[in-house]
Hints:
Radius of gyration: 23 Å
Structural class: alpha+beta
Low-confidence stretches: 205-209
Helix content: 10-25%
CATH topology of the largest domain: Jelly Rolls
Strand order of the largest sheet: 3-23-20-25-18-17-15
Distance between the termini: 35 Å
Strand content: 35-45%
Number of domains: 2
CATH superfamily of the largest domain: Jelly Rolls
CATH class of the largest domain: Mainly Beta
Number of strands: 26
CATH architecture of the largest domain: Sandwich
Mean pLDDT: 91
Amino acid sequence: MADNSEALAALEKEMAAANLRGQWQSDANRPRQRRQGPQNQLVVEPVPAGQAHLWRWSEMRPLLERSVKAMPESFTARRSLTLKNPGLTRGTTQTMVAGYQMIGPGEISWAHRHSISALRFIIEGGDKVFTVVNGEKQAMEPYDLVLTPGWCWHDHHNQTDRPAVWLDALDVPFVLALNQDFYEELGETSQDQIEAAEPSPVMRRVGETETGRRVMRYPWADARRQIMARAAATPDPQDGILLEYLNSTTGGPALNSLSCRLTLLPPGFSGRLRRRSASSIYFGIEGEGRLVADESELEFGPHDSFAVPNWSWYRLVNESKTKPALLFSITDQPILETFGLYREEAEAQRH
């Protein structure tokens, strides 16, 4: 075979001067996995973005308290400890970012809106802690889910003598990758407020739908009642018992880019391996368990959070013989489904 390396190098140099790049150059730099499939066919797959990682609540809570003392004026009261995946330059997964946020007694986080979609899963709240979304007050009781869809005005209020804490999750890396990060401040500290109508429970098992008026708050009392009512059902061999929060006007995911779910792992549950082209972030509510992901085994408990990268083999385990484990999770699956890119494989399909 002739040695054409000098000719190729000269060609690439001339192309670069003309602002061109050969497809062969791009392919060589793309992180991908190659393996032999059936009949020795070449199979190319993405490398998981980031790594499975766990953030312990026992470490987060003291740091949040220190942040309040260190920043008594907290730049619109947004003290969030962002969960940075050690395998990524930014973000908790390649499309999502999550963080633990605390606002101090009497604080208000100023009203603003942005093209980024966000949600709050409340850890420490109460009837005098609330978010105002497009003028409607949304209570923030423990384990409530409160949505702030893209371009909705929102401000957070803590009218108690104790700190308020929640888990934030946003589609920041996805929106930034598309160069669609729009932001606007209201100009006033907070919006004019009206009491939101009492939300009706709008949840489902995957595949079911229910439509109605737009809901921004999903009370924990309703959500827990619905998931526990299914506790005796036959669990999915990979996911346990799964319940999804609905967008009440469309019957689709709670946010256009993010799906929010509850998972119940029955006592003694040991899930089978599965991988998805979507990534996920989990938050422990009740009970304890274990994530097995590729080469990692991570023990989780209440208020711990962990990330599962895309296309990473993983399973969930609850070794308790008497107590279920409850988890809240967020996934970017709606993004992939919109563009026809979502896929998954179960253990039986593993090569």
